[in-house]
Fold this sequence. Notes:
The protein is α/β, with parallel strands linked by helices. The protein has one domain (100-453): Monomethylamine methyltransferase MtmB (TIM Barrel, Alpha-Beta Barrel), CATH 3.20.20.460. Helices cover 47% and strands 14% of the residues. It has helices spanning 3-16, 22-40, 55-72, 87-95, 136-147, 173-192, 209-215, 239-251, 270-288, 308-324, 342-357, 379-391, 397-411, 424-427, 437-453; strands spanning 74-76, 81-83, 100-103, 110-113, 124-128, 133-134, 154-156, 159-160, 199-202, 226-230, 236-237, 255-262, 292-298, 329-330, 332-333, 362-365, 428-429, 434-435. Strands 14-13-12-10-9-7-5-16-15 form a nine-stranded parallel beta sheet. The protein has a three-stranded mixed beta sheet with strand order 2-1-11. Strand 12 (255-262), helix 9 (270-288) and strand 13 (292-298) form a beta-alpha-beta unit. The mean pLDDT is 98.
Amino acid sequence: MESRERLILILSRAEQGPMLEAKDFEVKIVASTAKRLVNEYGIRYEEGTIVSSDDDLADRLFHAGMDFAVEVGMLCVDTNRRILWTEEEYNEVLRNCPAKATLGGGADSIEVYARTPEDITPLMIIGGAFGIEVPDDLFVPLMLSYAQEEMIDVIDNPTLERVYGYPPKAGSPWEVVGGWREAKLSMEVVDRAGRPDMCVAGVELSPTALGEISASSWGGFRTTDLHHAAGISEFKTNYESLSKISHLTFIEGPIYAFMACIFGGYFGGAEGVALGLTAAGIVLHQNYLPTIISLSSVHPFLQCTTTPELLWAFSIASQALSKNTNLLFSSLVRPSAGPGTKTMLYENAAFSLVTTVSGQSFIQSSMSAAGTQARHASGLDARISAEVSHAALGMSREQANQIAIELHEMYGADIQHRLIGKPFEEVYDVKSVQPTPEWKKMYEEVKLQLIDLGLPID
């Protein structure tokens, strides 16, 4: 089915599906269905395991995720209508899912591939600040610290704190101006990096549809760039996101779809989150027409993705999807610690190791310091993820599990303390866009530790 044809079906079902209030949807549909399916399919957290190697569990989880997708669907909060599809409809779309995509242009293009657990196929690397706030004058040097890294294929932007001195209020003209400012600065970054056709992921500054739709047009972000469209937790959407998707479908811009399942919320613990992540991949692919998908969760108190329970959930959900579909998906690296700390490097290494051997298609690194601190991001944050991912290609899940356990022993106690580290201008020379000697030395020390753990980093 053509994307535009399916778009009309999606929009129609958002207007005509069964009605339900959002609160009832979450409590009576999402929570109860998740709890029942976790029990029906025997989804159990493997205590003491970070990287699962249970193929049967992964397959059961996929079937549970499909059941969840069919029974729950997605709620459009503007109409209080549920967007529902049959299992046959989901399977038809999944069967026709391309196993690769090309992003960027010319010599700067990159292909991203569907992968399976323990695959030797390299992952696409997306490096960036992923929405962390920055002032206008630091946008270019900060993002250049990522774009200049040879191992990074795509960059994902920070959020501008202010636009020409004004707050970019949602739905205001300043959101439109902010989207265009982000596009201009992004093109300056890739030009200065000598990679003018490099894929850029934006519009980061788009709380409504205005920022994305305005700046994703002639003279702004290009149809070779990635364009953000986020779902709402849990399994909800709205007119703003559907408007972005509609515009991007007609301009044929690659859609970068997001969904997060809240750990400890309506899905409960690790088992429920694993189910939610799996189902989210299926539902997002059906309703958001994405080229690539980002599936995430976060600890409610630590705001990170690197606890053992969450790492296990990402691992088994990734295997469920990568063994049974050709979806191009990933999960965001969100360490508790920030730049200038060994803890952050350990966290990013562990997360990237786990997701690489579990079959994800690309790396997203990283929302450093859990995304809570303005300017706390740097290119080395992503380089460590890229180096570890490359070293882990073809590694067995059993070996990766042992390394991940040892890595967690190195950072686990620290994540409680939220070591936010230092802002960009204190770990990089802003003019030369090079890491400070202290930060570079720390990075090299951690690399040697990773090699000693069994990661063959060059």
